[in-house]
Amino acid sequence: MTIRWTVLAPAMVALPFVVSACINEPTAAGTGPRLSAARPVAADPVSLKLDPTAGNFPPPDFAKETGNGPYSQARWTNRVALDGRFSVLLEKSVDFASCYTPTPQNGCMAFAAVIVTGVEGITIADLGNIGFSVNGDCGAGAPRFNLYYDTNGDGQADGVAFYGCAAHVSETTTDWTSMSASAAAPDFCYTFPSGDCTLMRTSTVVELSVLVDEQGVWHIDRVQAAGSTTGEPNGT
Asked: What is the pTM assigned to this prediction?
């Protein structure tokens, strides 16, 4: 399997992030099945569930390691919550900037994410507005939505789109910031390996996740997609 490493400059659209994409493994956080075609969407909202996932690509080989470790954590917690009793803790201990140096620090390519399951195979039009609420910094590149999409109906990711928190703030309170964005209008998008964006309203979802790859601690709650909202371990 060929891994494509794409490093996007921090100055670009003020979205500082490092992306690790595999042709058969859409995101660093990817674990779900691939769908071969768009599935019909019922009149009722879809059933969402959140799957916390963390990992690392340690130097010098940058071979993928999945699971919570010393450099990143993704897990449910009942210590902080906006709605209900739970939120998802996303934490990373090493900044990504080290990855730009000749001697990358272990953990610079670590990630923490929450995969939004239940939307695989639906169209971008039906995905509609996507959003989340965050306790922690609402930055340009972290946390953000990563959306891997299929344009030719084979169920494999043909490109990836990004939606940063800071550019789409919809509400703020003392401790929480909420964001909402149209899935059809990403901050940035490209087709593998490095082509122009091909995201269309008829494209289908391969995987959607809320991801951090910068140093810090965040709590994610009230995740919205396809007309549904969830923030609890049992989903919607």
From this structure: 0.84
Q: Which amino acid type is present at position 182?
A: S
Return the structure tokens found at 34.
């691939």
The amino acid present at 105, given as its one-letter code, is Q
Q: Which of 132, 137, 193 is nearest to 163 (CA)?
A: 132
Q: Which amino acid is at 222?
A: R
Three-class secondary structure of residue 154 per DSSP: coil
Q: How far is CA 16 from the centre of its chain?
A: 14
Query: Is 36 within a domain?
Result: no
Alpha carbon dihedral 95, 97, 99, 102, in 10-degree steps, equals -130
Tell me the two tokens of residue 109. Answer: 């390519």
Confidence of residue 44 (pLDDT cuts 50, 70, 90): low
Q: State whether residue 123 is helix, strand or coil.
A: strand
What is the Cα–Cα distance from 177 to 156, expressed in whole angstroms? 33
CATH number at 74 reads: 2.60.120
